[in-house]
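Quick one, tokens below:
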């Protein structure tokens, strides 16, 4: 229970990587604000989020659900308000919620760019701004970036660029919050077996086989692989690690 007494906010926590992170932090004893956005994913999203809450509580942690669109600045700030009102403060921020649109630069639209950057980059900036004012000393910030920020694959320019910008925000914020002993890091997943991958308009079996072939560990990532890295970064064991963009792609990049 290394996070006993700590309060964590995890955005996009009802499924995939965010779900695994919220549940892992709960197992470590943290109180968790579980953010989800019902309007984006559909009618089953509240039930998914409730399942995460139950898993956290079953493992000995405490949690509260928060339906909010992180692309909406007021709703995003409301998550910090909720953490303070419900748990008395905030120690850990995990920015995980993301949006994606894949197209070549020639075919992508300005709307594609705006949608992705609004959710991925602007929301991360606003969350970091709030964290700079509200996080308690010796806190932790972990931004979920992406290996595509480093890999110039055709069709991924907008998504990759939105994540590359996050990596730079992390490096700068680490310097700005370092005097308060707050660490700031990014985790860059490779291909991870989540709904997000399976919702892409591609031959999924062929895609996964291709990812495995490029990965030294010869398997696709699982959400728990990423959650374990995050759990380390928010623990006291990682007190000397800050300003880093840590690859978690099985050696792919």
């Amino acid at each position: 229970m290394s996070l006993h007494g700590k309060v964590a906010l995890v955005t996009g926590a009802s499924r995939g990587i965010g779900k695994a992170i919220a549940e892992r932090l709960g197992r470590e004893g943290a109180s968790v604000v579980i953010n989800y956005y019902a309007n984006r994913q559909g009618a089953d999203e509240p039930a998914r989020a409730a399942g995460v809450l139950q898993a956290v509580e079953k493992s000995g942690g405490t949690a509260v659900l928060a339906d909010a669109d992180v692309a909406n600045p007021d709703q995003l700030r409301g998550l910090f308000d909720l953490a303070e009102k419900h748990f008395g403060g905030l120690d850990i921020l995990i920015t995980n919620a993301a949006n994606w649109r894949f197209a070549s630069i020639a075919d992508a639209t300005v709307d594609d760019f705006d949608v992705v950057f609004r959710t991925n980059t602007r929301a991360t900036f606003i969350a970091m701004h709030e964290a700079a004012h509200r996080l308690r000393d010796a806190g932790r910030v972990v931004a979920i970036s992406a290996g595509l920020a480093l890999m110039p694959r055709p069709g991924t320019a907008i998504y990759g660029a939105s994540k590359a910008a996050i990596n730079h925000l992390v490096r700068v914020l680490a310097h700005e919050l370092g005097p308060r002993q707050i660490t700031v890091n990014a985790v860059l997943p490779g291909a991870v077996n989540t709904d997000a991958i399976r919702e892409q308009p591609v031959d999924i079996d062929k895609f996964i086989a291709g990812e495995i072939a490029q990965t030294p560990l010869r398997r696709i990532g699982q959400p728990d692989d990423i959650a374990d890295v995050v759990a380390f970064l928010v623990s006291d064991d990682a007190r000397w690690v800050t300003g880093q963009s840590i690859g978690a792609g099985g050696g792919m990049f």
